[in-house]
Write a structure and sequence with these properties.
- The structure is a homotrimer.
- Chain A has 18 helices and three strands.
- By secondary structure, chain A is mainly alpha-helical.
- In chain A, strand 2 and strand 3 form a beta hairpin.
- In chain A, helix 2 runs parallel beside helix 4.
- The longest helix of chain A is centred in the C-terminal third of the chain and has 30 residues.
- Chain A is globular.
- The two termini of chain A are about 25 Å apart.
- Chains A and B meet through helix 1, strand 1, helix 2, helix 3 and helix 17 of A and helix 2, helix 7, helix 8 and helix 11 of B.
- Chains A, B, C: Functions as an ammonia transporter. May play a role in the elimination of ammonia in the gill.
Chain lengths: ~475, ~475, ~475
């Protein structure tokens, strides 16, 4: 009966078809084209080459690579769970994006009874998708595809609420999503895995390890994430010099964390050798740590230092904190997202607050009020008119001081972590419901459970050695 | 003698050098730069940043990824035919593009005795290349590189004729190439494999299967195709909102077919497990099904539904139609191109016709006559002058009604399939000629035939266990 | 003691932290934002969408793929040195780029006591990085990460001096970097490997071979290099038609060398089979051979012929020259960089000189003096005013004739090779210092030396067969 309970034949299609009906109905009744996509809204003054698609598509394309290829390969690091890592990432990502288009659409792109759709919505939805995939890292190998879809189904709206509170009420600076993406995703994932605690896995699992080829593929995923990360961090910044800085800082931060990761990996290992898990994960820490201040005038040196700090925290986390969390706090964080997204997200948030407190007109000129729009004077303030002479398009802000803005950042930090942790735990409870095909402890990290896995070559030869006829072998292979 | 007949030592260089001499001669006498590439045609009013290269290069780059990396990895799914899948794809693609530049150049870019060349020709040639590579899928593992080059040599001109008839005389809407690319490629490939029928392969072949690593690599190819498909479907659409919609619809269609593929894979398998072949192929169906209407105002919901429909047809095709074709109709379709490109291409064509019949000025406004240029009023029609007030650049069309346009789409469908099937069969006959190094049935799907394949690790150890000296082993390895 | 000397536990962190302190100090004191990145320098006339980042970022992104993914996979071709190939490439590249930003910054972007930083500096630094990685190919598998960092540490300034002499004094045309990138990198690498000569490796090494999977991964790297090479060759050309031609010629040259490589591989092999090493390397020769003339009006036919010539030279080099160099001249060129970058670089240089000698106003019009800026008339020459009427922005040049320019190209060739060879040999001497963890001959090409390598599946089974308990096996795996 245990065995039967992981059969996907009915469960997966039933859930998928239900989700699809829901999505199609919502699409039919609530989704229409935005004004850059709707043929009817183009007129004789429209310049096709100035369509918004050309500003956002290159970044969208890079983020697609990040989501599907970068995450897909990186999560395929287990010896016998490559299919699961890569294919479930594919499944979850496609669903999460569609679901985020709708949920986020209701919160942010809803007008006149309709969600207005363009490629910019896809980018926003892919940020939500990144959140879901990071959380996925905490439960990798221990969940069925049915559970993963349910997890995405629940996480997307919880995230949308948190995002809505932060964007609508708290109004923070966080171009790289350190708070909303990385910290939220981390604590949601930890909440879920805390509830899904499996004591027996703390004693080790024979499949919970890598192979030479899975390590190579996973590193390839790291390289893809590394290469497109600047596009991720700059996709939602202001155009122009802000976006230029975001690319520069991300690149420098990643470079610093990469070289540091190699050094620390050798230094902290028993035998003075490098560990591929460090090369795959810790190298990326700098991309997160520069996130909250990525578009600010922090200086290239600060980006470099943030990369080194983030990498060090992440590495120490893998080495000392993760085992502690698993053994003492029942938090089995499979991919160590608390190190790569949690600790680094905290550093990023603190760095962002420092950058906010240090930001002044001396450094930014009047464009200070573009990079920090909530510090711009309020409507009616005579200072606003003055600034608008210098920057014609400047919009009225909230007249916040740097200190006030810093407090809002802290408030956002608390809000995101609280909602994430509670949401994650509730999601964990739902995932424990029967009928969701949860794997047994023994069948964790094993593709055999959910996939028809091809025989290895030596298995074929064993069959032949055992006297199977050519036809019998072919039948086994064709299965 | 059989064995000798697959030796490439003379055959392959002889053919390649002959092709290269032909290509060089044609380049010398008939190819020159177009007016965006020719230094002589730039003048003091030229704005370098408005050179056409900047509009098309990003799409060209994405299609390069599709052709060389996406197809290359996807076709490497056989356990022992990874070299063949990836390297023959590389060989065929580079030749097909060069050949298409010339052949398509004569049909479409010929002026004053010269083919005028810019990056836009490369994009067009890569569409032809995609046709050749799809057809290749039908005969994968059963053909020599010599045969594959001959196949490309013949398919490109046959395609160019079909394209010329459709573009010059029938004039259809088919931005994603559902008819010209997918259906043509499918029936050409089926025609070829029909002639190359190998009865013994219907009984199975011990190498006709995947391995864990080949499945992973093939899925990586799928992910690359998935990620760049929007660029493929929008590369040749009108700039502006049309291109914006094409990206949106492709993404939505692919998302829908991906999640559906997982559900159907579990549902239709005997043991309720997922099959990697489905995840690799059927997930992509939505990219084809939205193709013919991809730039039209079909609504996001319709794109989603097309993805689901396409995926379902494709999956049922793999499950029930492919075995039938192989057993009863002598059509051994190795990669199931009839499912992924044929059935989906038909659905796309029908969807395109529906979208054409439903298109009206109420939905599109006056830009209806840009998206459907053949419905624009003819020269001299007073309605044209009226419309030109609304859209200054509008060109005179053919004054077709929606119904007329629908009939032309049907005519193109018939034309493409007929030319493709006949051309494919004739090509198959040519490929049966002697001296083309056709593999024997036993050596199909096996890299040993055409490549020096490195020994596996256990083979090396067997040599050492068998008492070979270090030097002898090194000699074997160095070979 | 020998064994102990390759322990990275102290050596690698010590070197890395020293380098990081140096980099941070230099960043703090000498690096600031350039005028496209500095918020303070934007004003009410700044158009954010015209920020320089949008012109260069797409090319930067492609070159990132080339450096980290293309090189990373290509260099992972050894059976048991995949971690080393891919991860050391990652380490070296990140350090080399940071170091090049600083060193090159002092030579080329230094103003008012500061290096001014934007994404354009990153592109320039990635060209230097490509140089370092090509040289790395000569010593792949025979060097420790400590040695590799030292090599990058020394090669970057030596290169910067050569570049400075060529750019500042000789002033040549070399858009694709045939002389400065490929030839310099080649002779630097050969110089280094000459000094690091290991006689015992000439007798073969049991790990110096590929496996099926490493060959596939390496070919994937080739395909990435192939696909993004046009971006590399055009990244630093003039915008407009020059860049358009550079893309076109690179694509044609690569296509020609690819198909030729397949033909020659079959022709020159003993048994008429293809060799993957040829498909991985020789196919790329055309990208180098078109390099020096890539933006000139050489005609598409010439680009094709250059691809064929380059491929032929490269293939003959692998077949006959490399063994000769290793056996007779003590130059063990691991990846055959002398074939892929040296011989082809020479051909490219000669082709560039021919293209310069043939260039005339008849072919280029007045933009001749933009593509060849040093041939533009000098300040004060009445011809300059005349030309400036035709091309408003034309700057004064050096009034060189074609013949003079050709001589300067030759001078640059000699300068680059001489500096590279001497610099490479001196670097080799430094790398022979003790404490740099140089591998012994037996442990070359083996990841076990510097990485914790996961057990293979059959090794796990052997442990179990040998009576190890589940717990013991888990401990071994967890290590």
């Amino acid at each position: 009966m245990k065995k039967h309970s992981t059969n996907l034949r009915v469960r997966l299609p039933a859930l998928v078809f239900a989700l699809e009906v829901m999505i199609v109905v919502l699409y039919i009744f609530f989704v229409t084209y935005d004004d850059q996509t709707n043929a009817l809204l183009q007129n004789n003054e429209t310049k096709p080459l100035e369509n918004a698609v050309y500003k956002v598509y290159p970044f969208f394309a890079d983020i697609q690579v990040m989501i599907f290829i970068g995450f897909g390969c990186l999560l395929a690091f287990f010896r016998r769970y490559g299919f699961g890592g890569m294919a479930f990432n594919f499944l979850m990502a496609t669903f999460a994006i569609q679901w985020a288009i709708l949920i986020q659409g209701f919160f942010q792109f809803y007008d006149n009874g309709k969600i207005h759709l363009g490629v910019i919505n896809l980018i926003n939805a892919e940020f939500v998708c990144a959140v879901v995939l990071i959380s996925f890292g905490a439960v990798l190998g221990k969940t069925s595809p049915v559970q993963l879809l349910v997890m995405a189904l629940l996480e997307v709206p919880v995230f949308a609420v948190a995002e809505w509170i932060v964007v609508k009420y708290l109004k923070i600076n966080d171009a790289g999503g350190s708070i909303l993406v990385h910290l939220f995703a981390c604590y949601f994932g930890l909440g879920t895995t805390f509830i899904l605690y499996r004591p027996s896995l703390n004693e080790g699992h024979s499949k919970e390890c890598t192979s030479y080829h899975s390590d190579m593929l996973s590193l390839l995923g790291t390289l893809f994430l590394w290469v497109v990360w600047p596009s991720f961090n700059c996709a939602l910044t202001l155009r122009g010099d802000d976006q230029h800085r975001a690319i520069l800082h991300t690149f420098i931060g990643l470079s610093a964390s990469t070289i540091t990761a190699f050094a620390l990996s050798a230094m902290l290992s028993k035998n003075g050798k490098l560990s591929m898990a460090d090369v795959q994960n810790v190298t990326l820490a700098g991309g997160v740590t520069v996130g909250a201040s990525v578009d600010m005038m922090i200086s290239p040196a600060a980006a470099y230092i943030l990369g080194v700090l983030g990498c060090t925290a992440c590495m120490l986390g893998y080495k000392y904190l993760s085992p502690f969390l698993a053994q003492k706090l029942r938090i089995q964080d499979q991919c160590g997202i608390h190190n790569l997204h949690g600790l680094t997200g905290l550093i990023a948030t603190i760095a962002g607050i420092c950058a906010i407190l240090l930001a002044s007109e001396e450094t930014y000129g009047p464009s200070l009020y573009q990079t920090f729009p909530y510090r711009a004077p309020q409507d009616g303030d005579p200072r606003l008119a003055e600034l608008q002479k210098l920057i014609p398009g400047l919009e009225a802000g909230l007249g916040r001081t740097a200190q006030e803005q810093a407090l809002y950042q802290l408030a956002a930090l608390g809000t995101a972590i609280a909602i994430a942790a509670v949401g994650g735990m509730l999601t964990g409870l739902v995932l424990k419901l029967p009928y969701l095909a949860s794997p047994t402890d023994e069948s964790c990290f094993d593709d055999e459970l959910f996939f028809n896995v091809p025989l290895e070559y030596h298995q074929v030869q064993e069959l032949q050695d055992a006297g199977c006829s050519e036809t019998q072998v072919k039948q086994v292979l064709a299965n």
